[in-house]
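Morning run. Coffee first, then this:
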Amino acid sequence: YDKMPSKEEIIALNPDFIAGWYSTFSDKRLGDVDFWHERNVGTYMALNSSCTGKAAEHPRTVEQEYQDILTLGEIFDVQDKAEAIVNDMKAQVQQIEDYLADKPRLTVAVLEDEGGTYRVYGEDVLGGDVAIHGGAELAVGKHGNNGNISAEDLILANPDAIFMAWQYGYGDGDQEVKHITENPAFASLDAVKNNRVFPINISRIYCSGMRTIDGILDVAKNLYPELYQ
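And here it is:
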């Protein structure tokens, strides 16, 4: 499907199971999970999709993405495959940790342009935790500070690198990078002067499942390319 199927379309498909986000089971989409359970359709909500509560109180983490994979492995009785996927992801993260054990970490801002201000993917949300697992020290978006920042805030933070979030159907990564690199107001940023402004797809930093490691490696390979040479 090019877009979210309607509740009626899903009913017509006669599924045994639906995996989705917390918002998937809202009144405007597929309705409450009880509707499906009464029809013997199993459901699963990704942990990082807000089903546990507000991010400031229940931070979204890479570990919860691991848990989603392991839980789906149990549901489909492929625990060994799920564990192998998670163990491989953890091994790649450990490689980054080992490399940086005696090295300073580059400071990073993970942002999304919202027309005049920037959404911050900080410590409390998955995008920030993905960056941390990729070897970043977050320059903005510390725990509990989940508001948007202004251009002036970004200039003041002056991170070593910037990752600009983008998603399919809403522009492209290169366009988001140019929003920073071709803006004269940001010419003084170290990230701009050192060519460290990079795109990162939202599918790798929001309820990303098996793509979580792709997001982590996007960060690590751009920040520390020597690790992968």
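Residues 79-99 form the longest helix (21 residues). Good start to the day.
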